[in-house]
Amino acid sequence: MLNPDNNPDFAEILKDIEEIRILNYNKADQNFKREHITLLKESLKKEQYNDIMMINEKGNSVHVYNCEKRGNSVGFVAIVENNETLMLIDLIGSINIQKFMELKKKLDNHRDSL
């Protein structure tokens, strides 16, 4: 269950998510090379996914892609990688980014007050 505390703010963010798939890989075990990841990113763009965010922090690279149909988000894909691992997060449905950012701000403020 994604919302065990029944947080109404979190529930509002989750309501339009149909499915989430998370795949974790060890790059060495799977023999992933830079070309494979580049091909994956190119394939997402061919499927009408738009690169909406890129973050590089503490050795991790995060790329987030969004797919829209008729002005509505229908899916997100995040590619999280470092030298050893690759994680793919595939979300079918949509997230209200504004509500997500509001909840993040509340959580950050709560954490800072502890």
Write the layout of secondary structure elements.
Layout: H1 8-14, E1 17-26, H2 27-30, H3 34-46, E2 49-57, E3 60-69, E4 72-81, E5 85-93, H4 97-113
Antiparallel strand pairs: 1-5, 2-3, 3-4, 4-5
Account of the 3D structure:
This protein is of the alpha+beta class and 114 residues long. It has a domain at 17-94. Helices cover 36% and strands 42% of the residues. The protein is built from 4 helices and 5 strands. A 5-stranded antiparallel beta sheet has the order 1-5-4-3-2. Strand 4 and strand 5 form a beta hairpin. The mean pLDDT is 87.
Annotation keywords:
about 110 residues, alpha+beta, 4 helices, globular
Helix content: 25-40%
Give me the Rg, rounded: 16 Å
Low-confidence stretches: none
The biggest sheet amounts to: 5 strands, antiparallel
Shape: globular
**Span of the ends, CA to CA:** 26 Å
What is the succession of H and E elements?
HEHHEEEEH
Mean pLDDT: 87
Task: Name the structural class.
Answer: alpha+beta
Count the helices. How many?
A: 4
Could you give the order of strands across the largest sheet?
1-5-4-3-2
- What is the percentage of strand-forming residues? 35-45%
Total beta-strand segments? 5
Provide a brief overview of the structure.
With about 110 residues, the chain is an alpha+beta fold. About 35% of the residues lie in helices and about 40% in strands.
